Amino acid sequence: MAAAEIPSYVVSSQSEKHRRARNWTDAEMRGLMLVWEEYFDELKQTKRNAKVYEKMANKLFEMTEEHRHGEEIKIKITNMTFQYRKLKCMTDGESAPPDWPYYKTIDRILSKVPEQNEVKLHESQLPGPSTSQTEASQSPSAKSIPLYLPYNQFTYEGEEECFKDEHSDSSSSLLTYKLRAEERPVKKRKLQSCNFQKKKLKVMEAMLEEQKKLSRAMEETCREVRRILDQQNIIQVQSLQLQERMMNLLEKMISKV
User: How many degrees, rounded to 5, is the angle at CA 74 between CA 72 and CA 76?
Assistant: First the structure.
């Protein structure tokens, strides 16, 4: 009976830890970019910035009417910063920016502070547990891959699991981007090959049309030659007939003499 009286919105800490946040819509992402840029200096200046994230959540709610917790905004910003750094390293030296709609906006936001200052700021925001506790809590993947966290570490219980989920999404999106980048030359070659085949087909059609014209001209010439030969035969026959008549006349004249 007591269990039935528990409100539906009460969720255990264990299930809340593993619960995955809902996806962000395009409107929320555009609003988040604006809010992030607006509160960037304030986030940079404060060490305990949970209240700043709550203000960002309220501002985002006013813009999109979609409710997001401050922790969700912090996780999203952290993961987007990580993805931005990965893409920037992958496309270092290339003229074209990555095919990610938020790359230029994040680049503009993070360019407000030099990279060394951002790293120092991040290091100053990290909590200071003992070395043994830090090594025990650090996962193998975190040891092998240096992650850039622009703001203070996560302070609530469920953020670590949510970060792993978001990080997996970022990795999959990076893999998709690499596959698309590798597919572009293949598609370009296929398009060039298709255009070459079309041009080749047009040339062959033109050659076939010329051959047809030559064949028709040859047929006309052959018909004209046959007509002339027929006329020549007729003239020859008439000439023979005249010669025969002349011979007959000569014979008659000789016989009379």
Answer: 70
